[in-house]
Amino acid sequence: MAEASLLAEGSSSQDAKSDHGARIARVALDVPVHGLFDYLAPDDLSCGDIGSRVQVPFGNRQRVGVIIELATTSGIADSRLKPLTRILRDVPPLSPDLLSLLRFCSDYYHHPLGQVVMNALPTALRAAKPIKQRLKLAFRLSEAGRERDDSMLPRRHVVKRRLLAHLRQSELAEEEARAISPRAIKALLEMSALGWVEKIAAPVATSTRHAEIAEPRLTAEQQAGVDAILAEAPGFNVWLLHGITGSGKTEIYMRVIAHVLEAGEQALVLVPEIALTPQLESRFRARFPQANLVTLHSSLAAGERTANWLAAQAGRAQIVLGTRLAVFTPLARLGLIVVDEEQDSSFKQHEGLRYSARDLAIFRARQQNARIVLGSATPALETYYNARAGRFRMLRLTARAAAGAELPSVRCIDVSREPLVDGLSKVLLEAIAARFERGEQSLVFINRRGYSPVLMCSACGWKSACARCASYLVLHLRERRLRCHLCGHQEAPPIACPACGNQDITAIGHGTQRVEAALTRLFPGARILRVDSDSVRRKSAWQGMLTAIGEGRIDILVGTQMLAKGHDFAGLTLVGVLNADSSLYSSDWRASERLFAQLIQVSGRAGRAATRGEVLIQTQFAGHPLYSAVIAHDYTAFAETLLAERERAGFPPYVYQTLLRAEARAFTAAQDFLAAAAQSAARLGHPGIKVFEPVTAQPARVAGMERAQLLVQSPSRQSLQAFLTLWHPQLLDQKGKKIRWSLDVDPLEF
Ligand code: ADP
Ligand code: ZN
Ligand code: ZN
Fold first, then answer.
1. 285 lines ligand 1 (CB under 6 A)
2. Which ranges constitute the DSSP H helices of 381-458?
């Protein structure tokens, strides 16, 4: 670090507010170090460069950073300051709004600002060089071109003649021109050199392919919701749209978006998954065929992601539909944020920068004075609590939107005494058979992929444990592999027991593959499709599966929660749920909240159209209150019960938590680190902060690293933040031997 100066954030007050004399650029770099780095800037540095990317020397290589502040002086001697290599002005600088969102994110999650900033940028902008903006081009006739007589062009210029004929009708995007002839671009560039044709930037993502779909008449509840949202003066307001599955929440989002677009503002729609729910994207495109809609998610090609991000920044994109990372999209005219399925845990990043996109979205809406709508059939308990306390406004949709559509009937099948056929009860099998005969679809939901979760020797009790993790290797019979779902290790299944040589090794328990195999045997004529992350490796495969399901070419679906998310399968009338009990008595106290949401969500897949659906839950605990709440479709009663429990136990949302996670090769090293951290917390003696004992994390070992954690909590978010601000630098100073640790603010998993 000798070559660049490290300044603790906020340590200097000489920030230059104007261009006068500012000769030092304070740069955020993608390094795991808190603070900004000072560089000597060229003479042309100005305030307008704040938010620009820069290329700087760091160590023995060039890195990219972002200018956060300008300064006249540095805490580092001039002789040791290095000049920055160049300011990359290839794209506009990050706006002050966005920078302050990123700063907030860094402060709140106690994560280095440079890493927060880089995490927010598309890959192409993270490279220490200007981006090659292969801006897609379009062509149109120039004034001169329009006045020319095309018949003057020699006959042999076939391509040019055809292009000109097209250009007289409309502009031509690059791809359209290429479709006319492979030599089209060359010809167009020649004509552009002659001044007949002009190059213009092509509009991003043309959506003309989608036919506009007429708006349905809103139900009374929907209308009331739209009216309430729009009646409010534009500006910051958090709405919780609590609507049962199929109640038409998306329709409400679209009406409000239409309003926002009319006002010339931009809308940001955050969803848990896009790649998995192509139906959603096409619904939006169909509704807004004229609008410029771009998507932002991690399975986009790098170039497309950059182009879409730039379109949003430039204000060309009016609707941004994205996953959690899209919360950082630059949007100068933001008028609305929608967070659909706001309870979904994928809005929280579970490694590195552990942010919650939903929570940041609320911060961002306040900061940019925009509306925000959180939608869910089963709101996160925190969200529901905030609505109940009046911090968010609540809107309820209690009926399904489509005429005649009803919620499914839900029933438990007591399997505590009944013998099962490969995990399937007689009642469920008969129900599937009845659907199959009627030509309706069934879905068997089991949240475990693979064939069986463990192999066991019947003679000595040996189990197929992963050597590197505290977990078992899952048998994948299709591929004839044993796989660890935590570390990715895989090996061939043994022929005989590695411990005693016994050849009788049994597959214990069920996963999707085993259920699929059983159903294939039991229903030889049925078309069965398994959907899990193993069978859906490619997006195109998934598209094909969705089409097959939609066209009724599948009789029985077997799948994980991938199938539970927001799909509309018209022919599906039965959902069977296997193995839900495992979440009832989990060590993670949030497990029941998640299970309830998942069951409501997967139940919501049944009977979306005219026929009423049926949901059968196989369980050993048929009288459990959680199942009773699912049967009654009663979110509110369930949420109230959970809230009462949480209040008694002193859990969120009644307290705020932060988890210090540590891992090391040796468990004692992780534990010593946490014990020292607990001591330094105690020494700080911050009022209102409770520090727990370090405990083993679950799972206790992953990829050879032993894991432990320390919980701190407080009834006040401000106190907790104030404490973390003092505690965090002490953790950074603490000399742990080969410890990996991180702070998880508002953790969701324990
Ligand atoms: P949610 O997002 O609340 O689960 P959706 O918005 O997906 O619900 O709507 C469920 C179904 O109801 C969709 O097929 C949608 O087209 C239809 N729908 C929504 N609003 C209406 C309405 N006002 N009239 C008729 N059908 C509607
Ligand atoms: Zn054995
Ligand atoms: Zn493993």
1. no
2. 381-388, 426-438
Q: How far is CA 733 from the centre of its chain?
A: 33
743 vs 725: CA distance, rounded Å? 12
Ligand nearest to the CA of 502: 2
From the CA of 604, which ligand is nearest?
1
For atom 6 of ligand 1, which residue has the closest CA? 248
Alpha carbon of 473 to ligand 2 centroid (Å): 16
For ligand 1, mutation pick of 219, 244, 251, 396 (most atoms within 8 Å of CB): 251
Other C-beta atoms lying within 10 Å of the C-beta of residue 629: 22
CA 321, 546, 544: angle at the middle one, nearest 5?
A: 105
Are 479 and 469 contacting, i.e. CB atoms less than 8 angstroms apart?
A: no
216 lines ligand 1 (CB under 6 A): yes
Is the distance from the beta carbon of residue 245 to the nearest atom of ligand 1 less than 6 Å? yes
Query: What is the model's pLDDT at position 234?
Result: 84
Ligand 1 lined by 248 (C-beta under 6 Å): yes
Atom of ligand 1 at shortest distance to CA of 250?
Answer: 6
- Ligand 1 atom nearest to 340, measured from its CA: 2
- CB-CB contact of 701 with 707 (8 Å): yes
Q: Is any atom of ligand 1 closer than 6 Å to the C-beta of 217?
A: yes
* Token output for 491: 């090996």
* Amino acid, res. 557: L
Q: Long-range contacts of range 209-218, CB-CB < 8 Å, 24 or more positions apart?
A: 210/282, 210/285, 210/286, 210/289, 211/286, 211/289, 212/286, 212/287, 212/289, 213/283, 213/286, 213/287, 215/251, 215/254, 215/255, 215/287, 216/251, 216/401, 218/248, 218/251, 218/255
d(CA 667, CA 705): 8
- What pairs with residue 199 in β-bridges? 139
When mean pLDDT is compared over 25-34, 357-366, 578-587, 677-686, the highest value belongs to: 357-366
574 close to 432: Cβ distance less than 8 angstroms: yes
Could you tell me the distance, in angstroms and rounded to a whole number, from the CA of residue 492 to the centre of ligand 3?
14
In 533-628, at which residue ranges do the beta strands (DSSP E only) sit?
Answer: 556-559, 572-578, 614-619
Ligand nearest to the CA of 459: 2
pLDDT of residue 14: 42
How confident is the model over 561-620, as pLDDT tens digits? 888 877 788 889 999 999 999 888 888 889 999 999 999 999 998 886 678 899 999 999
